Amino acid sequence: MKKRKLLTMLLAGIMAVSTLASCGGDDGSSTAEESKTSSTETSGTESETETATVDGINLEGYDPIVEDPITVTMMGQKAAIHGEWKDMEFFSIMQEMTNIGFEFDTPASEVLEEKKNLALNGGTYPEVMFGTNLSRDQQVKYGSQGILLPLEDLIDQYCPAILECFEANPGFRESITAPDGHIYAMAQITTAPIALTGSMWVNEEWLQKLGVADDDLPTTTEGFKELLTRFRDEDPNGNGEADEVPFVIFDDANKGMSLYNQMLPWFGVLSPSFYVDDAGTIHYGMLEDNAKVGMQYIHDLYAEKLIDNDCFVTGAAEAQAKGAEGRVGAGFHALPRFVFGNMDIEKEATYPCMPALSSEVNPEQTTTKGTGISQGTFALTDKCSEEVQIAMMRWLDYLYTEEGSWLIHYGPEGHIWEPSPNNPDLNVYIQPEDGRNTEEVRGGEITPDCGVACPKWVRDTTEAAWDDVQQQARIAWVDKNMWPYAKLTLPDMYFTTDEQAELDILSTDLAKYMTENNAKFVTGDKSFDEWDSYVAGFESMGVDRMIEIYQASYDRWAASAQ
């Protein structure tokens, strides 16, 4: 796409930048408004060319951000797929454009939490935390200690692209604002529907064998069960054996949470744990009457071998192997190839997405969507000077422009992507010639935004920018069958230090209790006659108090969002 051709953009210049004027007094303590000056002045006349600056920092563009180069210390998470951050093209381009370079500390993902906590608790932390997954709890803790700096005033003064992102995405600002009113870390936000909803893909070859048109896929739980029954009984893979697995689960062994997360919404229960209804009331899903109805439905599918009966004892690899053998009818995953085995993208594009379903207790087709927010991707520490604070916020702001978001995610034109020969407004991947795939090149040479969430705003136009029949088909199916029926489970919410401490105690055994008992209900090892005592078990473990805490947190979020 033309506006994302970064090399051309960089050569042309993002902003025309004039000589930066000196600002403020000798002590550097002037405010931004006092420091804004004209970069060229003519005696007795107004300047013809003006660039707003503060202490030599460009406030209107990014090329450069600072007149004199600076080096900033940064801690970032090094994923297994990553090359050395100091050699990555993204940082090189950004340094050339902005005059800001970095001295990196990049602990591996598997030791990130240990290294991060040691640094923050021991005083050896850098000026900038980047892609370090600062949890909401960590933001509150280290923000209240003064280690993480509040960002909201800096955003309001120096970050027009982030403000545009806030304006375009109601609730985003509130979702990254701590209970004390401060923003201690910026987040990645993704607004593309295909990244926010789950998708159940259906075997197109089996549908054709059974004479079921894509537009006639069921929209009710009863209709879904009937389709799975046909998959089981009518030999759609045509091998003369009763070896079909109508519906597979891709999950960690012995947990099965994807079953409940994906299927209970059909019964009006948006989550097996905490969720909020349209009236703003917090619920705990397994306490709801409809949860029992949904669990009985899942049990019936399991008992009739319509759900893979290995789902609690094997994991995703085994489920994928069955799909590659041509034995699977449907399954939740990002792409059909992960359910049914590798195939060319033209064939993959023909595989439909099952619509969101309704049920006898929930007449509306329902699925869920995420917030699209990845918390704690960028923070400044108290080791930043005022100059570095402003400069780094300008640097950060660029990543929330469409061009900057594209650069950090895909790199510049000509490395792993180029305009499509069929449509110059769309793009195609350049396949590496050394045997690596594009992700290995992206994470190895181009950007840390591969395996690690980094600060940026991923728009739906970014996801749609590819001349790829499968990607376009996936977008179309989700837009038609999922997105109109998707409800938010919970916004990103913060808890106070006291609330978090109480939750930590109460939640220790709750998740284990749920997953172990739910599996027993599904497999028949536990009778539904025991459901009431199961619910009572949650209550004895303090779930009502947890609901109160979640409600208080949600009410704060909702009040700030008004």
Give a summary of the structure in a few sentences.
The chain has about 550 residues and is α/β, with parallel strands linked by helices. It starts with 5 loop residues before the first helix and ends with a helix.
Topology:
Blueprint lengths: L5 H7 L19 H4 L17 E2 L2 E2 L11 E7 L12 H10 L1 E6 L6 H11 L5 E3 L5 H9 L7 H7 L1 H9 L3 H4 L10 E5 L2 H4 L3 E3 L1 H7 L10 H13 L11 E4 L8 H7 L10 E3 L5 E3 L4 H15 L12 H9 L3 E5 L4 H4 L4 H4 L8 E3 L2 E8 L3 E8 L5 H13 L3 H9 L6 E3 L7 E3 L8 H9 L10 E2 L1 H4 L5 H13 L4 E3 L8 H10 L3 H14 L7 H10 L2 H19 L1
Parallel strand pairs: 3-4, 3-5, 6-17, 8-11, 13-18
Antiparallel strand pairs: 1-2, 5-14, 6-14, 7-11, 9-10, 12-13, 15-16
Helix pairs in contact: 13-23
End-to-end CA span: 37 Å
- Largest sheet: number of strands, sense, barrel closure: 6 strands, mixed
Strand content: 5-15%
Low-confidence stretches: 1-49
Please write the CATH class name of the domain at 2-17 and 61-193 and 373-444.
Alpha Beta
- Please give the share of residues in helix: 40-55%
Spatial shape:
globular
Protein described:
With 562 residues, the chain is α/β, with parallel strands linked by helices. Among the domains are: 2-17 and 61-193 and 373-444, D-Maltodextrin-Binding Protein, domain 2 (3-Layer(aba) Sandwich); 198-260 and 297-369 and 470-487, D-Maltodextrin-Binding Protein, domain 2 (3-Layer(aba) Sandwich), CATH 3.40.190.10. 40% of the residues lie in helices and 13% in strands. It is built from 25 helices and 18 strands. The strands form 6 sheets. The chain has a 6-stranded mixed β-sheet with strand order 4-3-5-14-6-17. A 3-stranded mixed β-sheet has the order 7-11-8. Strands 12-13-18 form a 3-stranded mixed β-sheet. The longest helix has 19 residues, at 543-561. The radius of gyration is 26 Å and the shape is globular.
